[in-house]
Every structure is written in C-alpha cells, then in structure tokens.
Structure prediction request, 464 residues.
Amino acid sequence: MKQSLKYRFLEFVNRNGLLLPGQKVLVALSGGVDSMVLLHLLQTWQQYFSLKIGVAHFNHQLRGESAEADAAFVKKVAQMHNLPVFFGSGDVREFAKKNKYSIEEAARELREKFLVECAEDNGFELNATGHQLNDQAETLLMRMISGTGVEGFAGIRVQRGKFIRPLLFAERKIIEKHAEAHNIEFREDPSNEDISFDRNRVRHRLMPFLEKEFHLTNLQPFLRTGLIVQDWLSAIEGQVAEVLENELKMTGQNKIRLGIETYKRYFSGIQIQIVNHILNRLTNKPGRILFNRFQSFNQWVNKTSEGGNFLLSNQVVVERVHSHLLFKKQSRKTRFYRIFDELYPGAQFNSPELNFQLRINLVDGSPRISGNPNIELLDAENIKFPLILRNWRPGDRFQPLGMKFSKKISDFLTDEKHLFLPKKQMLVLESAGEIIYVVKNRISERYKVTNQSMKILKIEIKLQ
Prediction:
C-alpha cells in the first residue's frame, strides 16, 4: 500500500518541504489528467495538512470552443467540491508575436503571471501545478538538444518562489492509472498531439524511440539529475543574492555599476546569473544571455585595456569605466544599437533591409590575397567564435590595416570616402569584444594574413 501514488505523494511532499500545516494552496487546474489527479491528492491529504484549497484556470485563447469547454469543466469540478475558482485569459499568439516568443514561452509567461497575481490577490500562499516526471524528462532532453548551461539541467524546479510541483516524481502512466482507479474525470487537450511543438515531438517521437532502442523505461535518473542541480543552484543563488545586494550600484534609472575585480572573483556559474539579473532589471523582462555571448563578454572583461564597450544585448551595452563595469540600457531617444547575428564558420547572414549578404568560412593557409574587392581574408589563429555582427558604437576602436595605432571607428568612418552603408548604419564584426573588421571597408591590422598564417577566415560580401 505504501507504494501507491497516494503515499508516494505524501513522502515526496514531506521530503522536499513543499507544504506546511494550514497553508492556502491555489491549484492550477487545466482539466487535464495531471492537474485533476493533483487536486485529488491534495484533497486526500487536505485534513492531514489543514490545507485551504482553491483552483485557478487560464484560457490561452488558442483552441476556441475546446478551450471554453475546458473552462466549463473546471467550473463544474470547483462547484462539485465547493472550492473557490478563479478564471483568467490571454491572447497568447498576439503576446508571442509582440515579444518574439515561441507560443510555448508566451503561454507559460502569461499563465504564470495570472497565477501569481491570482494567488496574491486572494490570499493564497502557494501555486501548485501538475508537472510530472515525463514533463521533467522531456524538458531535460529538449535542453540537451538545443544547448543549455548548467542551470538548464535543473529542469522543472520542485519549488521556485510560490510555485510547487508535488507530482514531479510520478510518471504519466502511474498518474493515469490513479485517475482510472479513482474514477477521476478529466479532459484531453488535442494540442498535446500537435507535433509542430518541440515538446510534442520529443514526447511522441524521441521518447518512444529511446524506450524501444535504449530500453529507457526508468525516468527516475531525470528526477535525480534535476534535484541535484537544483540543490547546487540554491547554494549559488545565495552567493548571487549577496552580490546583488552589496555590490550592484544603481547610478541612474537605466545604469548599473559593478566592480570588475568583484565580478572576476566568482566562477562562471555565478557570473552568468549576475549578468542575467542585470539584464532583467534593466530591460524589465525575463530572459537569459546566450552562453556564447556570455563567454565573449568574459573574454572582453578579462582584457587589461581600459575603455571600450561591449554590446551585451540589443538593449544593454557595457562600458569599462576605470575599475568598474557600467551596464546601460540604450535610449531610443538617440540611435539604437543592434546585434544583427552571431556567426560561426559556414554561416551566412542575409539582410533584405540593408541589401547585402555576408558569408564566412575557414580555409587553409594557401590563399594569401583575394584579388576580389568583395572578399576579405583574415588570420584566424586568434579569432574566437561566434563572431558578432553589430552596429558600431561611439567609443569603438580598432587598428585599421596599414596603421600602427588604433583609431576610433567614428573617425575612421568620417575619413573614409566610400562607405557601402550610411555612417550611422555601418556594421562591424567583433571577436570576443574586439573589432576585427569594419564591414566592406577595412580589416584590423592585428588580423592581417602573413606568410605564417595557417588558418584563414574568408569573409565574402554580396550586395543585393
């Protein structure tokens, strides 16, 4: 009997300290089998924990009449169990389009925002969601495929803020058997079969393949991996909190200052969280810096020269001011600086708006001179990838080919008679925070090809 879902649920909740006596819990009730079983188990142990339970339902406005039927079902369930029920809705497609999110990202952000506000407005201390072990396995596999830092291997958190996931230990098939055994009614979401979504392709194609070909029948290692990393991250987050409280200084509405030596004192796992926090605070929206961009930023920080700047994102630039890093949100009142792309060898960038195409490739050391005005050759020995294609910024410097000293990009562009774009729109290629090429005009003297060059970067420009 102790192996039943009922008692495994209690054991998991107690082991992870998810519920305390007398708490008010708002259950995110979609009407699907996971959330309905979660509600049933919480009600089963309601007297044991002296819980006060409510339910909340969010309509993503993606499935028309089917979504309306889900809401009606949730309302019926709440009335049957005499539970307070709260409804919300949001135009996920419009939100995704406006913020350049995927449908899944937009749905999650709007849903979680509703749940947090609903809990706060109605006196609930916790939000409980029906995420289970298959969701965790799918999440970790998706992140491995798409690429992730260490934080990504935490997967779905057992507890984060006011959100708890008491079913994260249980496999989908066990949850479905529990629903059948206890005659728990639920609704099927037809969008779960739509393989245009990444998660559904992992669920319906990759997971069955792994089960058949690699005998992946035990998903508990995915739970253990997530819990181990989550425990590790909790220690890191404590150190990050200290930095945020004691070391970050707001020097204006859109400026944050951080000591360079303070930043260097921490290892990359803490540094990337500090950078993400600064980005989120300045832009006022959640997000993460790409790991390759973070590595380029660290290479720039570790250079000894003072001055210069680094475009951290399309909205935030970092300047080195004496012994500090100054993070600044770019003002749209002045010119807006933009990162166009991150490029690896073999990549091609097309810009209909600027009417040109750029392609980069690594070639062997045999070509020394291109002889083609649309092709540039650079010594690639010390070039770090990805290369960043971006607008130039005031304060940018590089050493033009043929010159002994560096020069401001602004002065270089003023002196040049023929620019393929207007000065304000001119682009540069950057490697680890260093400008190696003013596009279609001049490469850096430091990266010119010599007789000793063994690895060469070929850059080809095609005007459209």
